[in-house]
Target: Cysteine desulfurase
Amino acid sequence: MLNIENLHAEIGGKQILKGLTLRVGAGEVHAIMGPNGAGKSTLGYVLGGRPGYEATAGSVTFDGADLLDMAPHARAAAGLFLGFQYPVEIPGISNVQFLREALNSQRRGRDEAPLSGGEFLKLARAQADALGMDMEMLKRPVNVGFSGGEKKRNEMVQMGIIGPKLAILDETDSGLDIDALKAVGDGINRIMRAPDKAVILITHYQRLLDYVRPDFVHVLADGRIVRSGGPELALELEREGYGAIAA
Model:
C-alpha cells in the first residue's frame, strides 16, 4: 500500500529525515516510536503534504501512485488521513458543515456522487454514537471549547465518516485519560482494522499499543528507522528507554 524509499526531507532548510525507508502493507498496523526531535511528526506531515515540509530525495508511492507528486487534497481523496497531535480549532464552521464538505469533496475527487444531507447525517450520527459523542457536539464549531479528549474523539468521528485507506495518527494518545484512551483505541480498531486498510501510529508510549496492537514497531532516531520488530519491541522501549536501543 505505502512504500517509502530513502526519504530525505527538510523544513526551513534544516534536514530532518535522512534516508527513511518503510513499507506498509494492507491490513497492517505499524507503530513509529522514538525520542523527541527524531522526525516522527515530520514524517506524517511530509506524507500528508503539509506546506513547508519538503521532500528533497527518495520516493513515496501509495497504491502505486507517486504520493509526493500529488496535492494534499488529492492525497486525501486517494485515501490518506492525517490525525494531528493537537487538532486545530475552526471558529465559525460547524463540525457538520466541515465534515460534509470534506467527505463530498473527496467523493467528487473519486467521481462518486456526493451524499445528501439526510445520508450524511445518518452516517455522522452512527459514527458519533460509536465513539460515545453527543450528536449536539457535531453542531458546534470544529473543536472550539472541546477538551483534549473530546478533540481526539471528534477526530475519530472524522476518520470514521471519511473512511480512509491509510490513517497516519500523530500522538493520538496525547492528553487522554484512561477512558478516552480506550474509546480512541476502540475507534481505531473499529474503523481501520480491515484487510484493505492500514495504520501508522506515531507515539512515544506503549499505552496506546495496549488497545491497538501493532503488527510492527519501528524506532525512528535522527531521521532514520534504526530498528524494527514486533509488539515486544515497544515493551522493550518502555523498560529500557530510547538511549540504548536507538544508539
